[in-house]
Amino acid sequence: MTKRYFDLNIQRVLEHWTVSEALREIIANALDEAALTGSAAPEIIEDASGAWHVRDAGRGLRYEHFTQNEDAEKLAKPNLVIGKFGVGLKDAMATFDRHDIAVLIQSRYSDITIESVSKHGFDDVLTLHAAVDVPSRPDMVGTEFILNGLTSGDVEKAKDFFLIYSGDLVLEATRYGQVLRRARDVARIYVNGMRVAEEPEFLFSYNITSLTKTLRAALNRERSNVGRQAYSDRVKAILLACSSPTVAGELANDMAQFAAGKSHDETGWLDVSVHACKVLNAHKQVVFVTATQLYISAGLIARAKADGYEIVVVPENVAAKLPTLEDIEGNAIRDLNQYGDEWNASFEYQFVEPEALTPQEHAVYALADKALALLAKEAKRVAAVRVSETMRINRYDGNEAVGVWDEASRQVIVKRVQLKNPETFLATLLHEIGHAYSGADDVDERFEGALTHLLGRTGAAAVMPK
What is the C-alpha separation between 294 and 18, in angstroms, rounded? Predict the structure, then answer.
């Protein structure tokens, strides 16, 4: 068989392409063959003479692959492969030729080299052709590229385009792609395992395996420097499909840096941050709080920590969403108010009987009878005044209340520490009688009116000890 020449018809050469970018295309095709045929990953090795070999175990390259037609088999399995046109292979050949890299392609179909020869019918016009010859290895499996003139640096840079050679750790896989631990100064965006962009402000790297129409259109001839608008929706979809605490936990840690301006871009997406809270709530004992609550509800937060809960600080806009939501298993999301409600629901008073009080405490406690007698009309609903070592959590500041009006038992319950002096005890007692009298909460105008009335009835020293 006489050597035949196949015109590559490259009208525009990518002058800025490096040798490593050309080699990227060869490796991409080899990886696609491995994915499509289920064969082993390609070999990339240097021989004793210094030539580099890229060998796959796929179906074998034919000269038809140098056309720019879409590959039907690759189009049928878009989530497996990187390329779909022969144009990437042709651009690689042109770049190798421009950099004086000698190429020999071997498969069971033919041996192919790259030569500049006259264009058919125009002897004075030299163009790049694939020189197709009879196969020297007709029984071989797959395709082997033999490249002379490459350096080890070229090869390492080419391999660095691919997830399989990057060493990046997969944190979680979803139906849209994978979340990868960021191992460098910048995060990476891969599409079916090939890097197409870098993101300095992302927390994670990502490998997108389910492409949108927009992303497909953005994977241009160069397959690099793809804009964020092309893949941001898919990155969000990957994060919203995550269900393990690993990714959610790292997002939560990043959210805690929001107030300091040190968080990454993913936690600026409200739906992603809220979803991370849903996942974390389902898997771990957590309480979500805001930076403000860290200071104003320190007592309640300390109690939650003592109970074994992990405190997760979230931005205000995230916290505002949580009370109306359930986690991924259908449970209420535990923000600080939810934790307070749960704690109060499980709370049991530790009552102190009068005979167990110290003489000084008993003297103060005895003032309750005088107050109830003086306010007989207003306190008629109060069946008893009792003392407890512990109290429910105050819903307003997250600390233990000093007194409670218990509607069910019709009791005023006062924390024991209030018996240290008459003034604090009587102030607490009058406050709770105000609730019993008005039937209203602290912020209600009816309660404010009742409290004003009680203070007027008792006077400044009416119930003080003689």
Answer: 54
Q: Which CATH architecture has domain 4-161?
A: 2-Layer Sandwich (3.30)
Q: Is 218 helix (H, G, I), strand (E, B) or coil?
A: helix
Average pLDDT, the chain: 88
Q: Which phi-psi region, left, alpha or beta, contains residue 84 (left: φ > 0; alpha: ψ -120 to 50)?
A: alpha
The helix (H) or strand (E) run that includes residue 321 is helix 316-321
CA nearest to 95, candidates 28, 150, 152, 157? 150
| pLDDT tens sequence across 42-62 | 999 999 999 999 999 999 998
Q: Estimate the crossing angle of helix 336-345 against helix 298-306, to 10 degrees.
A: 60
3-state secondary structure 118-129: EECCEEEEEEEE
CB 422 within 8 A of CB 416: no
pTM: predicted TM-score of the whole model, two decimal places: 0.76
Query: Which are the contacts of 349, defined by CB distance < 8 A and separation ≥ 6?
Result: 386, 388, 390, 391, 413
Select from 235, 238, 122 the least CA-distant residue to 189.
235
Domain ranges of the chain: 4-161, 167-241, 259-345, 351-458
Q: The domain at 351-458 falls in which architecture? A: 2-Layer Sandwich (3.30)
CA 466 from centre of chain? 66
User: Using one digit for the tens of pLDDT, what is the confidence trace for 171-204?
Assistant: 999 999 999 999 889 999 999 999 999 999 999 9
Helix (H, G, I), strand (E, B) or coil at 7: strand
